[in-house]
Design a protein that fits this description.
By secondary structure, the chain is an alpha/beta fold. The chain is built from 17 helices and 17 strands. A seven-stranded mixed beta sheet has the order 4-12-11-10-7-5-6, with helices on both faces. A four-stranded mixed beta sheet has the order 1-2-3-15. Strands 13-14-17-16 form a four-stranded antiparallel beta sheet. β16 and β17 form a beta hairpin. It is globular. It binds pyridoxal-5'-phosphate. Its cofactor is pyridoxal 5'-phosphate. Homodimer.
Amino acid sequence: MEIGILKRSGGRWKLNPQQLLEKSKKYMWLPFTQMSDYERDPLIIESGEGVVVKDIYGKEYLDGNSSLWLNVHGHRKAEIDEAIRKQLESIAHSTLLGAANVPSVLLAERLINIAPEGLTRVFYSDSGATAVEIAVKMAYQYWQNKGRSEKTKFVTLSNGYHGDTVGTMSVGSIDLYHKVYTSLLFDALVVPFPAVYRHPSGDAQTVCNESLQSLRELFEKRHSEIAGLTLEPLIQGAGGMNTMPRGYLKGVESLCREFDILLIADEVATGFGRTGKMFAVEHEGVRPDLMTVAKGLTGGYLPVAATLATEQVYDAFYGEYEEMKTFFHGHSYTGNQLGCAAALANLDIFERERLVEQASDKAKLLSELLHDLGELDHVGDIRQCGLICGIELVQDQKTKVPFPFKWRVGYRSTLKMRELGMLTRPLGDVIVFMPPLAATEEQLGEMVRILKEGIVWATTFQYGATTN
Ligand SMILES: *Cc1c(COP(=O)(O)O)cnc(C)c1O
């Protein structure tokens, strides 16, 4: 077979695609993947260009979830490739423990310049989970350092997701992922997310008021023990692409201020233009005390993440060493130079191409394109925030009854989409659609066409009595 890996590796690996597939089944253990599914439908990506990725057989796929919500400008963006090559001429990595490095300093300044007002300090790490883990530890130690040692608890929203480490699972609240670990996690106080779709009133304002009221009641009772509140602003990602009613986020901020609780905005998924603003909190003029960024920070290239803090938080850790206020936390690859150089190039392109504005325009186009899907029999709800979309499939539109779990309708529809030339992954029966910001109108149209075909196929499939 004269394709893909054979050609480009220059024979270096002396493999054909079939051998590589066998090795992947034999040696790999993939994240968030039931490996028996992978064995049945394996996939190995070899290359990418723009919003298209290609597998080892040469089949092309539109990148319908931005390589898991990361990619911004498409793959092999010349300026980012070049920035990384250029950085390699100086150094690939040196430690940030006790020393800064050139691109990390420049990137910190850039981040503070674009961040919501009040955030003044950048603490680097290497993934969304570590960025949130750090925010949680900072919020905790902030109160310890200030002599308020009773403020140790965290509040989070139902269905929240902040990563897969033990600390971030503790402030997460998705049964499917977290339940099995319950006794391993610290207890967080969970308040209801203002979900409109299945609320009896179906009215956004009512849902918003109710949810804020239950948060107020919790704060009134327990604010003296609460260190911080974590949330994903405007839209929850892994919890099912759940959108917040307008005004909820601002309401949470006001309550946090009133009761002296740190607001931790997890912008790992929503940051960098995804929602039509640089950061989602900007839509409601919210100023978090701590804010985490990761996924889009390097344009989807390299693992760099950051936790941004206010000067007030930073000050609580500042002093002489023997005062024991230091933040003792760090990761080997914190502030990696190649990653920071990629992030700087990423932000240059944002500015030059006025990408945030563009994303906002594309979001409008996308809602028109998605509108048609609402007419399909089994599409229950279409939730969209900028270029983040979740399409919830249900067995019955009227009663909103879900499909039987065993049918795996979400998974099957995305497998069909793969066959049709687009990659994405479902969250249960919610189909995630999250195209790169750089996707053109034409590409968006083609992706939505595939979405529709995949959904129709899987929702009208005769699952039959045996699988019922
Ligand atoms: C993806 C995600 C994380 C975790 O990021 P990783 O880089 O996968 O560790 C945290 N918070 C939110 C909101 C996310 O979407």
